[in-house]
């Protein structure tokens, strides 16, 4: 949806950088929102680029340093991740509070509208936030000045139609341009005759249609994607436990071992032994129903920090309230005669906890809130994940042995 990823981002970055045209008697000195300039803009750009290791692989292309690359081929996905995923965190403390709060209303509304399914309450919330956002835009930025009329671009007005159109034709995910652009990109990659590109493109499209028709007539021509990798375990519900794994059961001591003991004491008292640490076979990864692969601190921390796109931070949605945690490892056990897969989680000050692996709903990014090592992080989820999964894009399982 280029309305969001390109048009709105261009407007606000131009405002915050102070690069929009300024007409007399207006003066850029009165633009208290134009803070992304000079060293502030350079340090902000470095901070955005530094978020790369904390963004899981499913976030696709991470945003480059905007201070260096924003005028030379910055992609729509980069804008979307930069502004609407990282934005609330990286703009905090940079934008004045009133502009940051105003911007966050847009982020909430856009993320709600981008869902594959949306409730009527969420739709009303999104529409209310959009109306407030546009009214406050006129108060904060335009200030009833004729010379600032060019701030009010068509993209702002278009926001007002998003929620009503969702009622009429469905959420944005079903008519976004991403799927069409992906098809155009795939066909473009297949062109092998630069001298006759359009004739070649026509033939590639015709051949793809023929292949799709054959697969519909003879389904066996399509490779079986349900074949599991070597030694993987199908947990049901499209959850798949993946290697790497320990070659034998290993003793887990300390706070981690205590959390596992506590779980057994509660759920399998007959198997609880207070006099010895638990022994388990650790597993490294879990494939989720949404196509993401959860990884673990056990394996990720053994790799160089700059060589990792962290995928061990997760959102949990069980019987209890929503929470976030870092996955330490998975383990497959038998409790009261029933096989189950558990996950050892680390939750900061709350310590370690054992939960069922199926409580994990998605992989999220946990990005440092500032450059200093304060231990403060903000959580963000990939925008458009459901759209990507609808189009058949899934994270490659690979082999983490």
Mean pLDDT over the residues: 89
Biggest sheet overview: 9 strands, antiparallel
Fraction of residues in H or I helices: 25-40%
- Category by helix and strand content: alpha+beta
Give the overall shape.
Answer: globular
Low-pLDDT windows of residues = none
The percent range for strand residues is 15-25%
How far apart the termini lie comes to 39 Å
Order of H and E elements: HHHHHHHHHHHEEEHEEEHEEEEEEEH
Q: What is the β-strand count?
A: 13
What's the total helix number?
14
Task: Supply the number of structural domains.
Answer: 3
Q: Taking Cα atoms only, what radius of gyration do you get, to the nearest Å?
A: 25 Å
Keywords: Signal
Signal peptide: 1-22
Protein name: Fungal-type protein kinase domain-containing protein
Organism: Piloderma croceum (strain F 1598)
What can you tell me about this protein's structure?
The protein is an alpha+beta fold. It folds into three domains: 2-174, no CATH class; 178-221; 233-390, no CATH class. 39% of the residues lie in helices and 16% in strands. The chain contains 14 helices and 13 strands. The chain has helices spanning 2-17, 38-49, 66-69, 76-84, 87-90, 97-113, 120-142, 154-159, 162-169, 178-189, 197-217, 254-267, 297-300, 385-390, and strands at residues 233-236, 239-245, 250-251, 279-280, 282-287, 293-294, 313-316, 323-335, 338-346, 352-356, 360-363, 365-368, 377-380. The strands form three sheets. Strands 1, 2, 5, 6, 7, 8, 9, 10 and 11 form a nine-stranded antiparallel sheet that branches. Strand 7 and strand 8 (323-335) form a beta hairpin. Helix 6 packs antiparallel against helix 7 (120-142). It is globular. The two termini are 39 Å apart. Keywords: Signal. This is Fungal-type protein kinase domain-containing protein. Residues 1-22 form the signal peptide.
């Amino acid at each position: 949806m280029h309305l969001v990823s390109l048009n709105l981002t261009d407007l606000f970055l131009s405002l915050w950088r102070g690069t929009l045209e300024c007409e007399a008697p207006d003066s850029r000195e009165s633009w208290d929102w134009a803070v992304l300039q000079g060293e502030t803009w350079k340090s902000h750009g470095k901070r955005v680029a530094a978020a790369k290791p904390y963004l899981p692989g499913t976030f696709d292309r991470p945003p480059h340093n905007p201070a260096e690359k924003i005028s030379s081929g910055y992609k729509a996905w980069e804008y979307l991740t930069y502004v609407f995923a990282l934005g609330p965190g990286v703009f905090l403390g940079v934008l004045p509070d009133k502009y940051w709060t105003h911007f966050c209303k847009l982020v909430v509304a856009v993320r709600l509208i981008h869902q594959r399914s949306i409730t009527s309450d969420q739709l009303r919330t999104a529409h209310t936030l959009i109306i407030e956002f546009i009214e406050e835009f006129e108060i904060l930025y335009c200030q009833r000045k004729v010379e600032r009329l060019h701030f009010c671009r068509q993209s702002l007005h278009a926001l007002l139609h998003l929620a009503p159109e969702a009622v009429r034709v469905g959420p944005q995910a079903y008519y976004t341009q991403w799927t069409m652009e992906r098809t155009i990109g795939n066909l473009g990659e297949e062109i092998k005759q630069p001298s006759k590109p359009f004739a070649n493109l026509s033939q590639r499209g015709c051949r793809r249609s023929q292949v799709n028709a054959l697969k519909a007539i003879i389904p066996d021509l399509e490779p079986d994607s349900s074949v599991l990798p070597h030694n993987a375990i199908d947990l049901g519900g499209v959850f798949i436990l993946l290697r790497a794994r320990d070659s034998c059961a290993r003793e887990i001591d300390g706070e981690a071992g205590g959390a596992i003991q506590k779980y057994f004491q509660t759920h399998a008292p007959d198997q609880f032994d207070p006099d010895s640490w638990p022994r388990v076979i650790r597993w490294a990864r879990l494939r989720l129903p949404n196509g993401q692969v959860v990884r673990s601190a056990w394996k990720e921390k053994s790799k160089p920090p700059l060589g990792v796109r962290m995928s061990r931070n997760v959102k949990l949605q069980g019987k209890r309230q929503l929470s976030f945690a870092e996955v330490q490892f998975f383990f497959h056990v038998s409790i009261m005669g029933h096989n189950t897969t558990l996950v050892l989680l680390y939750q900061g000050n709350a310590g370690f906890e054992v939960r069922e692996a199926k409580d994990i709903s998605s992989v999220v990014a946990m990005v440092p809130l500032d450059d200093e090592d304060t231990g403060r992080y903000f959580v963000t989820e990939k925008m458009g994940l459901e759209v990507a999964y609808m189009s058949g894009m899934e994270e490659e399982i690979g082999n983490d042995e």
